Amino acid sequence: MVAAATDTAGYRSEWRSTGVGPRYSGWAHLAFTSLSCWAAIGFAISRIRHPSWAELATFPVGFLIANAAEYFGHRGPMHRPRWPLETIFRRHAVEHHQFFTHREMSYETSRDFKMVLFPPVMILFFMGGMATPIALAFYFLVSPNTGWIFAATGVGYFLTYEWLHFAYHFPSDTPLGRLKVVSLLRQHHSVHHNPALMSRWNFNITFPICDRIFGTTHPEKPIRVSSEDRFSS
Questions:
Q1: Number of separate domains in the chain
Q2: What is the enclosing helix (H) or strand (E) of 70?
């Protein structure tokens, strides 16, 4: 396992020198993602007018749709190169999974946030290419309220994805890493970062609903490895 750790360290060093610009700020990246999503959620909610109980049911429906989209997007193009989404595959299966393995899950500096958070252009892709068409379908085929409710739910789910994934890669001995919900979900996600298991198990990154439904939750708990790494800004 020493060789694997050395390979991870070498890859991280090389990626930081070529993949992160000198002006990049991990905290600014996180703030941009959070604030832009909150703005979109707030705008969508502001457009809802006196929703009925049936229209409010769009919230749980939208949540389940988003969970399925996360699952199939992760199990599909993020782990299987398919035109025209090869960039997503390379970014996730090749780069992210080399940078973080089940034995080396934690950031070392805030500049490592770039390897977890989606770049702004990908936010536009996911929101514009996936959430917006479904929201428009609800808007025109059901009611305007359901369209706005789905939009708020979709963006809220995406932000939850970003925040939870961000938390999983924080050192486990920090206050954030020690939170019970983060610890439990991090265990699920760390199995997926085992190179021998990543293409078959634990594809849900937020809540393992579809993993349970489709039988892709790994039956064993992840290997626990004590970590001496510390987060530095």
A1: 1
A2: helix 58-75
